[in-house]
Amino acid sequence: xxxxxxAALKPERIAINQATTRKQWDFREAVEGYARHGVxxxxxxxxxxxxxxxxxVKRLLADNGMSVTSLNRAGPLVGLDRANRQSAxxxxxxxxxxxxxxxxxxxxxxxxxxxxxxKDLSGVRTQYQDMLAELLVPARKAGVPLALEPLHPMxxxxxxxxxTMTDANDLCDALGPGIGILLDVYQVWWDTRLEAEIxxxxxxxxxxxxxxxxxxxxxxxxxxxxxxxxxxxxIDLRLIRxxxxxxxxxxxxxxxxxxSLDWWTRNPEDVVKISLERCRTVV
Amino acid sequence: xxxxxxAALKPERIAINQATTRKQWDFREAVEGYARHGVxxxxxxxxxxxxxxxxxVKRLLADNGMSVTSLNRAGPLVGLDRANRQSAxxxxxxxxxxxxxxxxxxxxxxxxxxxxxxKDLSGVRTQYQDMLAELLVPARKAGVPLALEPLHPMxxxxxxxxxTMTDANDLCDALGPGIGILLDVYQVWWDTRLEAEIxxxxxxxxxxxxxxxxxxxxxxxxxxxxxxxxxxxxIDLRLIRxxxxxxxxxxxxxxxxxxSLDWWTRNPEDVVKISLERCRTVV
Lengths: 283, 283
What we know:
The structure is a homodimer. Chain A is about 40% helix and about 10% strand. By secondary structure, chain A is of the alpha/beta class. In chain A, helix 2 packs across helix 3 (about 55-65). The two termini of chain A are about 15 Å apart. Chains A and B meet through helix 6 of A and helix 6 of B.
């Protein structure tokens, strides 16, 4: 089996996205909590900056030896009327500044999808590409890469008009430097083309900007908030990590579990402990 | 817009899949009900044969001037232990004989997916291909084409390890004559590659064996049984019908709505009436 050839995940590569303890811990508690368990990478959400201010956020990060993988997020950019489109771009620029201030590794850009009443999926995809091109100008200036995260086709109508690694790679090819891909296994694990498209990111070392892990549960009871703990579902996480590393990625491996039905209801200390254990045993 | 170039759907091309009135009508009621509304194609389920016997089924079809688009179904073929795999193949052979008896246009083969405890998606995909190759021998002899229907990636873990038109086309290329594709818009509408993969079916006139319509609702409340009536969701049905016809398909356009939350609770006469009206206005 391929598993045998993938080296154990080094603890210093582990990151936790704040979403994983979103209902239990705010930004400060998450930073301190993850650090307590020896984790020194955080996927941060902007609500921490809203609550504490950028100076205090920087102090908390520094005091806890914590680096930021990504600042979640800019977008949605499409599915909006003209006025909201402009304010989405303005907000994305603010997010770029914030990401630069806290030295986040990248800024994920949630696409959005069809506006109410529209069936023009191809149109919103074109519009998304155009808006990314516009956002790339300040992103390059700020030195913060934009991250495209393909989301599962089951959310194609409402959350993301970009749904596969193929689409994300095509967009990167079209848009040039300053943009890359955030690969979340939950979104793309099913894709026959996954290995080939991961290898495609390897042609340009900087293209893979992040690697998120969780698991696909059977049955899945909610289309957004029922992700599983690594090892509790059907995704061969070690196989996919092997592909990602074969493509040249050696950055953080980030735990990101949206789970209103289970993990968000648990003691966050246990969530972190079990997550780290699973990183050793199945990721 | 492309809509302008697609001719109105001729009523004689409309088919209804029994699934659409599955909770209200049995096979006999469906055949008589659809015929009453001027529909002369039915997507039949095998429970009609179980209940009435093949001779009576043939009589009901003939008496109502009804032809069968497909007999649903063979499979699942994978995700089974060895004993169940053999009985799935035996059952699929029986389905082939039944499909031949009632002159069904094709026999859809539900793949199935991961067996309990497995994460080997690539392995079950290979196994599915091997079992299709085995089933193709009697299928060619019976003169009944096997139909591959890619199912949405959200059911990749449990219902179907084949999830895109690309995968279905690749399988057809690999397996040779006697096998084709059933395109259900609900499963594939989101795919950036859809138009190209539909055109790919056109290289071999016989490859597209069926075209199913329903709609994708926002929000979707159930991952299997919440399909929408054509026009109530976000799928540009006329655009996709245009692609299908440009690829050379001129067979039945089949209404297939799985809807435990809505349409299965309604008066079936109304379901048929509204379906036919929507075929005129949005398909």
